């Protein structure tokens, strides 16, 4: 992977937003792969600014979120559908119908993974996939042990990931037990991967992803299998790199 070390999240956000603007300018119906969580927020903000200032037409831009919780009530403010609407679709001015999130409704969940894969394929695949990484090394919600060939499916969240995400809920017990996530195989089909990480807590996962052996026990290491992966990190997240 290409490693870019930046001063802070704002610099990272600006760089990635510039790359996305270039993509959209050349391909007005570009397909973006969207991560949730805290890491990409500066990117989404920088992108919204550029779109507004330069009056970029984004009405044709399509998007696919990485993952969703299973079993939250429809419209729950911390569902990734709600987060993607609030942090991405609205500020960027995307067309809501063109931005998909895996369906975490337990009714019909057995088809949801297959349907999502079919929708990504029908869209012609993801052009640029934004990725965060969990302390456990997960990308999407592919926790350690996930097959490197996996496709979108239901998974169980690990205890550390539920603890990390408890900050978004009233009580740690409110964090769902299950999620539906693009697989590692799904993620690897995107044409460009951009993995972002900031802060000391991510340093071991970044080192394992970039320099460790490619292994299902460190899902982030799958990026080493990809011909076009960019890793954008601050000094703290880069601190365990050789
Ligand atoms: C989010 C996702 C996760 C997060 C990861 C890091 O859609 O798939 O892999 O990217 O948990 O989360 P933050 O950015 O909140 O540290």
Explain what you see.
The mean pLDDT is 97. The protein is α/β, with parallel strands linked by helices and 242 residues long. The protein is globular. Strands 1-10-9-6-2-3-5 form a 7-stranded parallel β-sheet, with helices on both faces. Strands 4-8-7 form a 3-stranded antiparallel β-sheet, covered by helices on one side. The protein has helices at residues 9-26, 41-53, 80-92, 109-122, 159-165, 184-188, 203-211, and strands at 2-6, 31-34, 62-65, 67-69, 99-100, 128-131, 153-156, 178-181, 192-197, 229-234. It is 33% helix and 17% strand. The longest helix has 18 residues, at 9-26. The chain has one domain: 3-Layer(aba) Sandwich (Rossmann fold). The protein is built from 7 helices and 10 strands. The site of fructose -6-phosphate (F6R) has 14 residues, from loops.
Q: What's the SSE blueprint?
A:
Elements: E1 2-6, H1 9-26, E2 31-34, H2 41-53, E3 62-65, E4 67-69, H3 80-92, E5 99-100, H4 109-122, E6 128-131, E7 153-156, H5 159-165, E8 178-181, H6 184-188, E9 192-197, H7 203-211, E10 229-234
Parallel strand pairs: 1-10, 2-3, 2-6, 3-5, 6-9, 9-10
Antiparallel strand pairs: 4-8, 7-8
Helix pairs in contact: 1-2, 2-3
Bound molecules: fructose -6-phosphate.
The site of fructose -6-phosphate has 14 residues, from loops.
Spell out the key features of this protein.
242 residues, alpha/beta, Rossmann fold, seven-stranded parallel β-sheet, three-stranded antiparallel β-sheet, 7 helices, 33% helix, globular, binds fructose -6-phosphate
């Amino acid at each position: 992977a290409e490693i870019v070390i930046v001063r802070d999240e704002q610099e990272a956000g600006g760089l990635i937003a510039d790359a996305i603007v270039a993509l959209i300018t050349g391909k007005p119906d570009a397909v973006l792969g969207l991560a949730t969580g805290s890491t990409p927020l500066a990117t989404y903000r920088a992108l919204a600014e550029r779109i507004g200032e330069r009056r970029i037409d984004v009405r044709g831009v399509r998007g696919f979120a990485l993952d969703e919780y299973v079993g939250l009530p429809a419209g729950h403010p911390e569902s990734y559908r709600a987060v993607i609407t609030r942090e991405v679709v609205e500020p960027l001015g995307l067309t809501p119908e063109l931005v998909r999130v895996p369906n975490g409704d337990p009714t019909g969940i057995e088809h949801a993974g297959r349907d999502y894969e079919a929708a990504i394929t029908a869209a012609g695949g993801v052009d640029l996939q934004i990725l965060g990484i969990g302390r456990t090394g997960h990308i999407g919600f592919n926790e350690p042990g996930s097959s490197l060939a996996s496709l979108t499916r239901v998974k169980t969240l690990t205890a550390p990931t539920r603890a990390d995400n408890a900050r978004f809920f009233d009580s740690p017990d409110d964090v769902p037990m299950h999620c539906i996530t693009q697989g590692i195989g799904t993620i690897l089909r995107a044409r460009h991967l951009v993995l972002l990480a900031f802060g000391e807590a991510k340093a071991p996962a970044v080192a394992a992803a970039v320099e460790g052996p490619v292994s299902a026990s460190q899902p982030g290491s799958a990026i080493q299998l990809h011909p076009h992966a960019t890793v954008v990190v601050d000094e703290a997240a880069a601190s365990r790199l050789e």
